[in-house]
# Entry
Amino acid sequence: DTWITIMEGDGMDIISSYWMKNTYGQIDTLEYLNLGAGRYIIKIDNNNYGSYTLSNTFRALSSQNDIEPNNADTLAQSLQLNSEVTGHIGYYSKQTTDNYDYYKIEILQDGELQFILKTQDSINKLGMSLRYEDYELASIRWNENQASNTDTLTISNVEQGVYYIAINAYETFGGYTLSNSFKPVKSPSDVEPNDVDSDAIVLSTNSSVSGHLMYWKDGSLDYDDWYSIYLEKSGSLLLTVSPSEKFDSNIYLYKGNSYVSSSTYYGETGVNDTLWMPNLTKGNYYIQISGNDYGE
# Structure
């Protein structure tokens, strides 16, 4: 009447054991499905004398493991843009279960960032989240698309910076493939910071500038862009914003702290906004550009 115990390499930490009481001459089987790479000790105990045969079967995952440790953002492994990486999650090793894998990725311009997580070995209950420092920007919990082994996390309005993607397992284990793709915004961004009038970008008369709004920056959305323009003489001023297809922009004009006028709000995306002021006096003016969604 034997029982089997699996222990860590130091022989102190018991991982699992199996005992069938009073089953003399019967086969005892101990199966542990999510062991990480390492050295283990198998212990055979018995409450009577006799002989036995011990056999073992090992099934390795076909996919390559991720580089460990990477179970915190401070240990995150670097990802290249438009690349793919494989990993294992939920496996026990060194007295802990690997329930988190962290990766970091740097983008050098504004755009759309997408991650695709494909699970292997019929596992489910995997989640992933995209973070900037301590701010969670988007997440998918426990394979929301249960009919498929693929989940997609897309955030269309990220600014340049370093972002962290976390893969987490909940009562599951197995292999996965994580791929990413990045689509940069075509037009160049405005110079940041310019979110308040004191940081306004100086514009020359009869000039143009391009910019982006409502993109994630430092864990928050870039709601406003400010510009200043100095009129050396009294006269007329025409301001025109040509937004991208999905962007609905608005223009506000100030002189000092005083509101002067604003463009008419139509609630239409991709339509030019104009503000025509035929009789402005000489002086410095501030222009505030805002919108109801992200865009250029």
